Amino acid sequence: SPGQGPGAAAERPDPSRLRPHVVLAQENTQIRDLQQENRELWVSLEEHQDALELIMSKYRKQMLQLLEGRKGEEAEPVLKVHQANSGEIESQIDRICEMGEVMRKAVQVDDEQFFKVQEKLAQLELENKELRELLSISKESFEVRREDLPD
């Protein structure tokens, strides 16, 4: 068919030839999406930390009530189990806090990247404006020179 000739492939835009501001706009959108996702993850992480703290405090309270109701020698094995469980839960809380720190750093990096892209976009827009002005000046001077030429 006539639309399948060698010229058909050339009509499709090559991503490498997209205008820089188009690419930057796409990156801007991706960065905003990532920032939103990071904020949501951050809220979720804080909720998990709160929940773990609540579980730990309830667990401690129950263990204390249990220990108060027993004599010294009966309390010994319960106390050992409590210490083991307590250590496990606290190490999980520590791991979650470490994850939180990693996420906080990732959010910072994303923010810095976003500002770099914004800065680059502003530079490119300024450069584009200057190039357009130069182009219009050179067109005007070319037209003036053509008028000066004898027929």
Please characterize this protein's 3D structure.
The protein has about 150 residues and is mostly helical. Helices cover about 85% and strands about 0% of the residues. The chain has helices at about 5-10, 20-70, 70-150. Helix 2 runs antiparallel to helix 3. The chain is rod-shaped and about 120 Å long. The two termini are about 45 Å apart. The model has no long low-confidence stretch (mean pLDDT about 75). It holds the Pfam family SIKE. This is Suppressor of IKBKE 1.
Order of SSEs, N→C? HHH
Which strand-content bin applies to the residues?
A: under 5%
Chain-averaged pLDDT: 77
End-to-end Cα distance, whole Å, is 47 Å
What's this model, at a glance?
By secondary structure, this protein is mainly alpha-helical.
